[in-house]
């Protein structure tokens, strides 16, 4: 092969040239994967800020809660405070409000159960807020490699079709569609790997926060239990 032909082949195998001249199927796959990757990275950065804020809020609230004082004073300090009434703070407010609402209407043990249910609802609300959009990361993590694989299969099919039409396997015939196939594979992995790593990390952080909320609920329930008088049957 003469140098001029080699130069033309090298130019035709450049990334930009391959993408711009790829088949519409491969271009569509690359567009889908690019959009999925952009959305994934947006969610990754948003979730990083949300989980960091949730951890700081938990630490602030626990510092205030365990610093001592009457429950009513803690409630007044936490309620309406945007820096404290989130996460464990919202769980505390929900339980305290329900307990105060029910303690003079029903038996203390039933009031504790009502407070526990209210805290459980608040906990589920907080967990739901934290896990919002994580399902998208899981979908990108699992689906993107297969979308890229479809582009790979399509590129290889195109290569074999070109060989059949040309009657011989030359570099100019085989290289472009095979390169398209490899680009589709790489794009699928580029979208899937960050989504997988971020999803696993955030699920771990979510489980950790959920366990801390659960521990606080148990401790707060015990505190409320000690503050109610024992009733005889």
UniProtKB/TrEMBL annotation:
rRNA-binding as UniProt keyword: no
Gene label: tolQ
Chain ranges of the MotA/TolQ/ExbB proton channel domain: 105-214
Complex and partners: The Tol-Pal system is composed of five core proteins: the inner membrane proteins TolA, TolQ and TolR, the periplasmic protein TolB and the outer membrane protein Pal. They form a network linking the inner and outer membranes and the peptidoglycan layer.
InterPro entries: ExbB/TolQ_transport, MotA_ExbB_proton_chnl, Tol-Pal_TolQ
Topology in membrane: Multi-pass membrane protein
Gene Ontology BP, a term: cell division
The protein's role, per its UniProt record: Part of the Tol-Pal system, which plays a role in outer membrane invagination during cell division and is important for maintaining outer membrane integrity.
Keywords: Cell cycle, Cell division, Cell inner membrane, Cell membrane, Membrane, Transmembrane, Transmembrane helix
GO CC terms in record: plasma membrane
Chief location category: membrane
Subcellular location: Cell inner membrane; Cell membrane
Keyword Thylakoid in annotation: no
PANTHER family linked to this entry: PROTEIN TOLQ, TOL-PAL SYSTEM PROTEIN TOLQ
Pfam families for this protein: MotA_ExbB
Transmembrane segments annotated in the record for this chain: 24-45, 134-161, 181-199
Sequence similarity: Belongs to the ExbB/TolQ family.
Protein name in the entry: Tol-Pal system protein TolQ
